[in-house]
Fold this protein.
Amino acid sequence: MPKILTDDDIADFRAELCRVATERFAKYGYDGVTMRQLADELGCSPKTPYRYFQDKADILATVRAAAFGRFADALEAAAASSADPAERSSRVGRAYIDFALANPAAYRIMFDLNVPESMNHAELRRESARARQFITRQAEDLSRAGLIEADPQVVGWSMWAAVHGLVVLKLAGLLREGPDFDVLHKTMMRLIVEGARTKHAPVSERRKPAAEQAPMKN
């Protein structure tokens, strides 16, 4: 007679399946993981995972949603820890890095996988949106406080691109011969903020070089 699973049994199996899936997706990519491999890792029948998830894409969307949720929790806690815009921005940036370095598999499945479109997954859509709002929020706060003059959307995305690139280099082991990681991070952020203290005109409004200007009429 089959064992009757309790709610705790179901939750425990789902959690273990998600843990294994997170590690394998991060290591092998979406196409390098199969449902059979996940079942073998868990020591269960190949059909068992289908009792808990629709398919491989559903598993990936679920583990990505969980990763984004934990990531957003970390950023929200950092943002709530200070009322000063500059200090808050610094703490959110530090929380971003701390999460990424402490959870490399989760970070990779959030940002570094070529995955099928899965934003119709309600939980993933909600949690990723919650995390993404921090991309520009800190720069918007700096702008309102008069600490930067440049477009806060552009500044926010520039900060995100810079930190993401730094994290990826660190996780790939490519910074061993470079400057100290924290020094590099602080210098990078300082350069962005200092550059953002000047309001830059959109490219279309900038004066063209003399060689590109229309010739003057006699």
